[in-house]
Amino acid sequence: MSATLTAEKLSFRYEPNTSLLENWSADFFPGEVVAVTGPSGRGKSTLLYLLGLMLKPTSGGVLIDGSPAQGRSDRERASLRASTFGFVFQDAALDPARTVIDNILETVLYRGGDRAVAVNRAHELMDQFGVALRASAKPGQVSGGQAQRIALCRALLGNPRIVLADEPTGNLDPASSDVVFRALYDQASRGAAVIIVTHDPLLVQRCDRELML
Q1: From CA 73, how far away is CA 11, in angstroms rounded?
Q2: Are 148 and 168 in contact (CB under 8 A)?
Q3: pTM for the whole thing?
């Protein structure tokens, strides 16, 4: 089986003497859920940003279906992110000025999806994750746990082939955490490569494999 996503000798430095990753390589395959673990400050979130083409590595590169992402323009990288990835950020990263539904829809609409179809699917996901809010609700009117589940709706709306999730259950109670993990695992069962940064040992046990930084 060919890897959907490959990290090839990735290195990243914020400053000349501050290195987070050095020659880090890994393959991520369709249909699997991988936990990325390690102490705080080791660069786990940075790794997700590198894999998701939001940061450029100091050296090395990222391959999608065997094709290098480096050398592409910022516009090409943005288009590739929108068409291929789903992101769940640690702080949800919702736009406070926009409604919840518009936050969920933004990536699908950016890549030219049909709004009516996307809205119907968004409401299905919101019902599934227990965040069926009024249409005018803003992120500032929801709890941290609700915001994280809204971010998951956004990440899964476009049926992405790669899902990157940074502590997706960090603000959730056990029952809600189970719903989130099952949704991520279901996405993997549809052929996605799912990568989860987590400190939760119970979540790690449920993943297919673990990579430690």
Answers
A1: 20
A2: yes
A3: 0.90
Residue 135 binned pLDDT confidence (cut-offs 50, 70, 90): low
Q: Is pLDDT at 119 greater than 70 in this prediction?
A: yes
Among 116, 190, 126, 120, which Cα is nearest to 152's? Answer: 126
User: Would you state the pLDDT for residue 21?
Assistant: 86
If you classify domain 5-212 with CATH, what class do you get?
alpha beta
CA distance 148 to 16: 34
Q: State the residue for tokens 């996503």.
A: 5
State yes or no: pLDDT of 203 exceeds 70: yes
Per-residue pLDDT tens digits for 17-45: 777 788 999 999 999 999 999 988 888 99
**Ranges of each domain in the chain:** 5-212
- Distance (Å, whole) CA 66 – CA 86: 19
